[in-house]
Amino acid sequence: MIGKSVFRALNGRQEFVKRCSKIVIRASSTVPQMSLPLSSENSNPLPFFRSKQNSPSLHGSNNSGQFYTIDPSIKKQLFLYGGIPKTYDDLCKTFKETCMMIREPALEIMDYMKSTNFNNAATRYCLYGKIGTGKSMTMAHLLHYGFENNFVIVHVPWAPYWYKFPKEYSDCPTKEGMVDLPLDAVAWLIHFKNQNSHLLADPKLSVCQDWEWSKREITKKGAPLAEIVEMGINRVKHSTNCIEALLQELKQLSDLKRCKTLVVIDGFNIFFSDKTKIKTAAFEKIPPKRVTITSPFVDITKQDWSNGAVIVSVDDLAFFRKDERNTHYPRGLLGAEGFEHLDPFIPIETKNYSEKEFHYCIEYFLDRRWIINPHAASEEGRKELAFLSNCNPFNLLKVTAPL
Amino acid sequence: MSSLTKLISTLARVSDTKLALLNHSNVQIISSAKMSQYPKYFIDPTFRNDELNALYETGEVKEKALVPCRAALTEHTSSEFYSSFTRKFINHVMRKGNKQLAREVVEKAFEVIKKTQIQKYHSLPPEKKVDFTIRDPHELFHQAVINVKPIMVLTPIKRGGVRYQVPVPVDDLQATILAYKWFIEASKDKERTVRFYNKLAKEIMDAANNTGRVVKKKLDLHKQCEANRAYAHYRWN
């Protein structure tokens, strides 16, 4: 009974803080990439598992394990077409807030990015780890960081979708033996436009060379970059060519220091696999190499450009079920070809929850009423949850679902 | 006194067995020794930590250790989240021995119940949040079954070459089993695209509020029993 009243009191305080923050946001709604500001000094302090800092650039090791809140407007801009894993997104809709845990892999990469010399070639980071340890969530956190620091974001939420559930495929008219994914390319361009809408208006982002789409359609040198994006969205036939042009332009523009680019690709190892569900007109099944949308994204992860960063994740789930390699290490998942392409890179491992992170996670679930069963809050209950889920973040979600 | 309660009390007066009719007590799912591979003197296993500790404290352990004991079932766990009531329902949901699927489906239904409540809770303004209690899905299910259990059922009894539908009292265990059956039937009766666990969750939440399809089925059955009260004496004749 005492516990209940404490919960109610805590919830009341949190609602008060949220209301204060909401008023401040409305006043400054014209400023782009505005995170929820720090809680005002007058309000009661946040519980220990929540961070006052809602801006990833200011996250440090003292925030490790804490949950920070993403502003709904930022979530809409960054993650409308994917980025936050579906199970977790469902949870965010249930809790009416998008909160993410600040964990070591994300802090490590942000630390490196803050101290990188961007005159050198773009550094490549490879996130790896067992299933459910937080690779996609780390990427979402880093996307938010890139967004705040005015990076042009090139984001592929989950690359295997193109090869497992293609919307439509057709033989490429210009390149022999290749297959186009026109609608998927358009969908990606719309996603790119949505994420970088505030930067595409910048006059510095202008095209470096002429691009000829057909006899009558030409994008001339000096035109805004947004024109290529619009061309790809409106003319489905040229969508993949527009992606190629766009990514090459971004490489050149980054070299010329007119912008900085952050490439984030989830499930990168699918690009070097053998299988897809895509067939040619002659019903021949083809590998990802022969799909036109693969090459621009493999190209941008090369080290022939500067002033940017490439964050890539490798996951066993990217492959088809029968082709699982039962390993979580980059060398096994990328294969010889993929490893040689990506080498040298900085490998970052995502791990199961530490004791502190587990404790904070359970407290957050209790706070949000995700765990209702009174036994779960007790010491034996927590020990059982830690054992059943092995402190794996995804498994913990599954195990606590019916409680 | 309503006509229904009159009928019940008539049956109670005449019947020999004691019926826990009007107080819907908690169901005690006792392991029935009616049809069992074990002889009758075999005792049930003690698998809950608190019960075991109590046995050690009182010293009953020494006596119990000498008595032959039945094997514990796979669902008899010392888990903190064990619910004997729910596990019986999961057994009824199970088809072709696929216990894992049955458990997943029932747990998913509970998850859905929980999510709908939490979403409502978080949409409320802070003043109203204090009054809103999010009920444990197990508790809700328990309440739903209590609301759905029938007191009487119709049984066909043949008298003089004619089968009459006679209202007959039903004991607690049989009533619970009927309630489980009705929940499962109601959850199966759906469009192809609707998931079983979503339908089950909806049925449980409705029944806990004493509304919905399954409660209606019970009430219809009671009405029919009322209507056939004239045949009640055929039970003994």
From TrEMBL, chain B:
The domain of life for this entry's organism is Eukaryota
Q: Which UniProt keywords apply?
A: Ribonucleoprotein, Ribosomal protein
Q: Tell me the InterPro entries matching this sequence.
A: Ribosomal_uS7, Ribosomal_uS7_dom, Ribosomal_uS7_dom_sf
A single Gene Ontology CC annotation of this entry is: ribosome
Query: Where does the Small ribosomal subunit protein uS7 domain lie?
Result: 76-229
An example GO biological process term is: translation
Protein family per UniProt: Belongs to the universal ribosomal protein uS7 family.
Name of protein: Small ribosomal subunit protein uS7 domain-containing protein
Q: What organism is listed for this UniProt entry?
A: Cloeon dipterum
